[in-house]
Amino acid sequence: MEIALESLDGQVDTVIVAKTSHSICGGMKTTNCLEIRDQLKHLKNIPFPKLGKRSKIDMLIGSDYYNLLFPVKEVHGGDGEPSARLCPLGWTAIGTIDVCEQHESCSTGFLHTYRMQKSDAKRAIAAVLSDAEVSDEELEMIFAGVESLLNSRPLTTVSDDPNDNLVLTPNHFLIGQMGDNFVPESVDSTPFNLSGKRWRRVQELTRHV
Protein backbone atom coordinates (compact mmCIF):
# COMPACT_ATOMS: atom_id res chain seq x y z
CA MET A 1 0.00 0.00 0.00
CA GLU A 2 1.08 3.61 -0.50
CA ILE A 3 1.67 5.79 2.55
CA ALA A 4 2.25 9.55 2.58
CA LEU A 5 5.05 10.76 4.87
CA GLU A 6 5.74 14.35 5.85
CA SER A 7 8.37 15.67 8.24
CA LEU A 8 7.27 17.89 11.11
CA ASP A 9 8.97 20.92 9.55
CA GLY A 10 7.32 20.27 6.18
CA GLN A 11 10.65 20.03 4.35
CA VAL A 12 10.07 16.39 3.37
CA ASP A 13 6.80 15.31 1.75
CA THR A 14 6.89 11.96 -0.01
CA VAL A 15 4.98 8.75 -0.70
CA ILE A 16 6.39 5.30 0.04
CA VAL A 17 5.18 1.81 -0.79
CA ALA A 18 4.93 -0.45 2.26
CA LYS A 19 3.93 -4.00 3.13
CA THR A 20 1.40 -4.50 5.90
CA SER A 21 1.43 -6.91 8.83
CA HIS A 22 -0.84 -7.70 11.76
CA SER A 23 2.07 -7.29 14.17
CA ILE A 24 5.33 -5.35 13.95
CA CYS A 25 8.13 -5.79 16.50
CA GLY A 26 5.84 -7.85 18.74
CA GLY A 27 4.07 -4.77 20.09
CA MET A 28 7.30 -3.04 21.11
CA LYS A 29 6.62 0.47 22.40
CA THR A 30 8.23 3.61 21.10
CA THR A 31 10.77 5.48 23.22
CA ASN A 32 9.84 8.96 24.39
CA CYS A 33 13.02 10.94 23.77
CA LEU A 34 11.64 13.91 25.69
CA GLU A 35 11.93 11.87 28.90
CA ILE A 36 15.71 11.69 28.60
CA ARG A 37 16.42 15.11 27.08
CA ASP A 38 16.64 16.97 30.39
CA GLN A 39 18.72 14.21 31.99
CA LEU A 40 21.64 14.55 29.59
CA LYS A 41 23.45 17.82 28.97
CA HIS A 42 24.27 17.17 25.31
CA LEU A 43 20.57 16.56 24.50
CA LYS A 44 19.04 19.58 26.28
CA ASN A 45 18.63 21.68 23.14
CA ILE A 46 17.53 18.89 20.79
CA PRO A 47 13.93 19.49 19.55
CA PHE A 48 12.72 15.90 19.80
CA PRO A 49 9.12 15.46 18.56
CA LYS A 50 6.24 14.62 20.86
CA LEU A 51 4.84 11.12 20.55
CA GLY A 52 1.38 10.58 19.14
CA LYS A 53 -1.46 8.88 20.99
CA ARG A 54 -0.37 5.46 19.71
CA SER A 55 2.49 4.37 21.95
CA LYS A 56 3.64 1.34 19.97
CA ILE A 57 5.71 1.00 16.82
CA ASP A 58 3.47 0.70 13.77
CA MET A 59 5.93 1.43 10.94
CA LEU A 60 9.49 0.41 10.10
CA ILE A 61 11.51 2.22 7.44
CA GLY A 62 14.37 0.13 6.10
CA SER A 63 17.07 0.28 3.45
CA ASP A 64 14.55 0.66 0.61
CA TYR A 65 14.10 4.26 1.75
CA TYR A 66 17.49 4.94 3.26
CA ASN A 67 17.29 8.51 1.96
CA LEU A 68 14.74 9.15 4.74
CA LEU A 69 17.13 7.81 7.39
CA PHE A 70 20.35 9.41 6.18
CA PRO A 71 22.09 11.22 9.07
CA VAL A 72 22.21 14.97 8.44
CA LYS A 73 23.68 15.81 11.86
CA GLU A 74 24.62 13.92 15.02
CA VAL A 75 25.19 15.04 18.61
CA HIS A 76 27.19 12.65 20.80
CA GLY A 77 27.69 12.44 24.56
CA GLY A 78 29.97 10.29 26.66
CA ASP A 79 30.54 6.54 26.57
CA GLY A 80 27.34 4.62 27.17
CA GLU A 81 25.11 7.65 26.57
CA PRO A 82 22.59 7.91 23.72
CA SER A 83 23.26 10.14 20.73
CA ALA A 84 20.86 12.43 18.89
CA ARG A 85 20.52 12.08 15.14
CA LEU A 86 18.86 14.47 12.72
CA CYS A 87 17.35 12.67 9.73
CA PRO A 88 15.26 14.15 6.90
CA LEU A 89 12.15 13.22 8.91
CA GLY A 90 13.37 14.88 12.11
CA TRP A 91 15.33 14.24 15.30
CA THR A 92 15.58 10.89 17.08
CA ALA A 93 17.78 9.30 19.74
CA ILE A 94 19.92 6.22 19.16
CA GLY A 95 21.77 4.02 21.60
CA THR A 96 20.96 2.78 25.10
CA ILE A 97 18.15 4.65 26.83
CA ASP A 98 17.25 3.76 30.43
CA VAL A 99 13.56 4.65 30.52
CA CYS A 100 12.07 1.16 30.62
CA GLU A 101 10.07 -0.31 33.44
CA GLN A 102 11.81 -2.37 36.11
CA HIS A 103 15.09 -0.64 35.27
CA GLU A 104 15.53 -2.64 32.08
CA SER A 105 17.81 -1.27 29.40
CA CYS A 106 16.16 -0.10 26.19
CA SER A 107 17.96 0.41 22.91
CA THR A 108 16.75 2.42 19.96
CA GLY A 109 18.46 2.13 16.61
CA PHE A 110 21.73 0.21 16.45
CA LEU A 111 24.48 2.71 15.75
CA HIS A 112 25.68 3.05 19.36
CA THR A 113 25.74 -0.69 20.01
CA TYR A 114 27.47 -1.22 16.69
CA ARG A 115 30.20 1.24 17.61
CA MET A 116 31.00 -0.60 20.83
CA GLN A 117 31.00 -3.97 19.07
CA LYS A 118 33.06 -2.57 16.21
CA SER A 119 35.94 -1.76 18.56
CA ASP A 120 35.73 -5.29 19.97
CA ALA A 121 35.71 -6.66 16.42
CA LYS A 122 38.83 -4.66 15.56
CA ARG A 123 40.72 -6.20 18.46
CA ALA A 124 39.51 -9.69 17.55
CA ILE A 125 40.44 -9.24 13.88
CA ALA A 126 43.89 -7.95 14.81
CA ALA A 127 44.49 -10.92 17.12
CA VAL A 128 43.40 -13.51 14.54
CA LEU A 129 44.85 -11.97 11.38
CA SER A 130 48.09 -10.44 12.68
CA ASP A 131 50.15 -13.44 11.53
CA ALA A 132 47.80 -14.78 8.85
CA GLU A 133 48.81 -14.64 5.19
CA VAL A 134 45.73 -13.54 3.27
CA SER A 135 45.25 -11.66 0.02
CA ASP A 136 43.32 -8.40 -0.28
CA GLU A 137 40.35 -10.28 -1.71
CA GLU A 138 40.38 -12.81 1.13
CA LEU A 139 40.66 -10.02 3.71
CA GLU A 140 37.64 -8.32 2.17
CA MET A 141 35.68 -11.59 2.44
CA ILE A 142 36.61 -11.92 6.12
CA PHE A 143 35.49 -8.35 6.83
CA ALA A 144 32.18 -9.05 5.06
CA GLY A 145 31.69 -12.15 7.20
CA VAL A 146 32.44 -10.31 10.44
CA GLU A 147 30.08 -7.49 9.46
CA SER A 148 27.33 -10.01 8.72
CA LEU A 149 27.82 -11.62 12.13
CA LEU A 150 27.71 -8.23 13.89
CA ASN A 151 24.53 -7.26 12.08
CA SER A 152 22.78 -10.52 13.01
CA ARG A 153 22.63 -9.67 16.72
CA PRO A 154 19.11 -9.09 18.11
CA LEU A 155 17.66 -5.60 18.50
CA THR A 156 14.50 -6.84 20.21
CA THR A 157 13.98 -9.07 23.23
CA VAL A 158 14.84 -12.72 22.64
CA SER A 159 11.99 -14.97 23.78
CA ASP A 160 12.17 -18.64 24.74
CA ASP A 161 8.66 -19.18 23.34
CA PRO A 162 8.94 -20.87 19.90
CA ASN A 163 5.57 -19.37 18.90
CA ASP A 164 6.81 -15.78 19.28
CA ASN A 165 7.96 -13.72 16.32
CA LEU A 166 11.60 -13.87 15.30
CA VAL A 167 13.83 -11.19 16.77
CA LEU A 168 14.58 -8.08 14.75
CA THR A 169 18.22 -7.59 13.70
CA PRO A 170 20.15 -4.90 11.78
CA ASN A 171 20.31 -7.34 8.85
CA HIS A 172 16.53 -7.08 8.48
CA PHE A 173 16.97 -3.40 7.58
CA LEU A 174 19.98 -4.04 5.33
CA ILE A 175 19.17 -7.27 3.46
CA GLY A 176 15.63 -8.09 4.56
CA GLN A 177 16.49 -11.19 6.61
CA MET A 178 18.28 -12.19 9.80
CA GLY A 179 21.45 -13.23 7.99
CA ASP A 180 23.10 -16.00 6.02
CA ASN A 181 25.08 -18.92 7.37
CA PHE A 182 28.36 -17.24 6.45
CA VAL A 183 30.48 -19.71 8.43
CA PRO A 184 28.94 -23.18 7.87
CA GLU A 185 29.86 -26.10 10.09
CA SER A 186 30.93 -28.07 7.02
CA VAL A 187 34.32 -26.31 6.93
CA ASP A 188 35.41 -28.60 9.76
CA SER A 189 34.01 -31.85 8.41
CA THR A 190 33.90 -31.70 4.60
CA PRO A 191 37.02 -32.56 2.58
CA PHE A 192 37.94 -29.92 -0.01
CA ASN A 193 39.96 -30.11 -3.18
CA LEU A 194 42.90 -27.82 -3.83
CA SER A 195 40.78 -25.05 -5.35
CA GLY A 196 38.62 -24.88 -2.22
CA LYS A 197 41.37 -24.76 0.38
CA ARG A 198 41.68 -20.97 0.35
CA TRP A 199 37.93 -20.57 0.77
CA ARG A 200 38.06 -22.98 3.71
CA ARG A 201 40.89 -20.96 5.23
CA VAL A 202 38.83 -17.76 4.96
CA GLN A 203 35.89 -19.47 6.68
CA GLU A 204 38.10 -20.71 9.51
CA LEU A 205 39.57 -17.26 10.10
CA THR A 206 36.12 -15.66 10.07
CA ARG A 207 34.85 -18.16 12.63
CA HIS A 208 37.80 -17.51 14.94
CA VAL A 209 37.11 -13.78 14.84
Automatic annotation (TrEMBL):
<protein>
    <recommendedName>
        <fullName>Peptidase aspartic putative domain-containing protein</fullName>
    </recommendedName>
</protein>
